[in-house]
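Predict the 3D structure for this chain.
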Amino acid sequence: MMQEYKRSVCPYDCPDACSLLVKVENGRAIEVVGEPQHPITQGKLCPKMRDYPATVYSPERILTPLRRTGAKGSGAFTPISWEEAIASIAEQWRGLVAQYGGEAILPFSYAGTMGVVQRNAGHAFFHRLGASQLERTLCSPAKDYGWRAIMGGTKGMRVQETAHSDLIVIWGANAAATSVHFLHFVQQAKKKGAKVWLIDTYETPTAAVADRVIRLQPGSDAALALGLVRLLDEEGLSDEAFLEEHVQGYEKLRQETLPDYTAEKVAALTGVTPQEQLELAQALGRAKAPLIRMGSGMTRYGNGAMTIRAILCVPAWLGAWRHLGGGAYGDLSTGAAVDKDVVLRPDLLNPATRSININQLGDALTKMEPPVRSLYVYHCNPAAVVADQNKVLAGLRRDDLFTVVHERFLTDTALFADIVLPATTSLEQDDLFTCYGHYFVQRSPAAIDPVGEAKSNWDVFRLLAEAMGFADLYEKTAVQMVDAVLERPTPWLEAAGVEKIRQGEFAELPLPAEYKLQYFTPSGKIEVWNPLEQEPLPRWLPPHSDEGDLWLMTAPSVYGLNSSFREQPRLMQLRGKMSLLMHPADAAKRKLQDGMLVEAWNERGKVLFTLAVTDKAQPGVVVAEGVWKLADAPGSNTVNALTSQRLTDRAAGSTFYDTKVFVRQGM
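Done. Predicted structure below.
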């Protein structure tokens, strides 16, 4: 019996990018554990990755290319060879390009794998083909925009500093579901006496670590932030020396914006009482190293970017950046550590090629002229995870839409494909990972051979490029592409230790000793007032509005990640039923009872849920945790049939949380 441990990296869209040890026995992965020596992973994995071999060897894996033999969506397929699949795709695409041009083809991918090579494998191919561009703004671009508007290119805090904070405010982040290793450092801080406040629209599972929970009205976060800044002034808790030295426009904010944010007005907008506001402001002002951990939830409204700008005023007013453990962070920017152009090949892109926003796929497939005539989907499941599901499904049903899906499982999207190609898991492919939750970089070699006839993104595009007549773009293997990226290290990557990374070890990108007092903005200061913005000063903007009488929060689940992991029976059992959380007062008003089948509806669609009556929800807000497969839903749709294609105030991001519904007893 031959047994060894191989290093790998979790590929999923999570800030932790866990370092893994894969136990391989006779060529088969039998166990996946967290790397105990990694300073962030520390040997621990989330519930989703503990049974990763159950995903790798799931009986639901697609093991061979498939051709559709029934109606779209029926799930009727027959196995075909790779040669036949590639030839069929190439024949269709050559005909479409000849008749309509390359823009008739739309690539569709997002974050099913986060590696530098495999995630971006198709860019060079579709640039050369002249295909429509995809604006990949599904998750939190408004959050990034808001950060840049205040902080410019300033680096976010190291997550390890959390352990040194004496007050941690987790704002709009369900870390128990989306960033479990951050909570490890929270617990370290708590052992030293730190207090934890949670600010969210409902009592998420992260509340288990919190000393205080503030539930505020959806889309009102900016109002609360500016109200806190005003209270810091009134209570004499502002760091005037820091403001004078490091903050541009603080007096303008005081004079022109803060007078509008009295405790009474903020209470009316947020539902947070004046007393709660005061207690939080005092706790922040009296802390030595207060930290705000910003999630992405509060940026998925029509006011998302402005919300981040407002929240970042709070640590500026506190001078929190001076102190170890103090400051704020959301997503860290580490992409600049590697030269992705080796993979992306932007030199092949015609800037005039039309661009389609990922959040508006429904309209793109049903309304756009000239039409999208072919869709190629890889490491994404748009039928489940993109807004306005009914329009997306209507587009996928088009008989004149040639759809190819490269996937591990027959997802909701794959059911509508004309050709399905079997995809590898991360254990079966080579890649290189940076991260948006910490500063470590690590190579991830294939730990096992591909299961069945599965192929990686890179290998499929090599085949497609050869069939389309531009094999020169993909002469290298994925292993060689990782080497090529590492052979062109940026100074930042060089400082981390390229040779360590090349050998498969993890390495941390270094930051200057005084990095939290170095602000990479035009002024060299934190720009509370940014003259380059259409609105130079932060303020509360109203979110979008629907006609419903209840806000709907489409929240993450502890036991899933978007539409992934439904192939693991243990996780599905832990998730239970597709539920809608509702406050007892709202249930009583509608004569609804716990466990009852209910229908949430608005102008976009109707979705059936099992009702869960709980005071974890607040009055006026209902919560649907997780993205479910259509086959597992009690009705014909899942939660994104209710969300809209509207975009954020800046950066064209998603507005999943900017949704209202009515709820009634289901049929």
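The CA atoms of residues 8 and 470 lie 32 Å apart.
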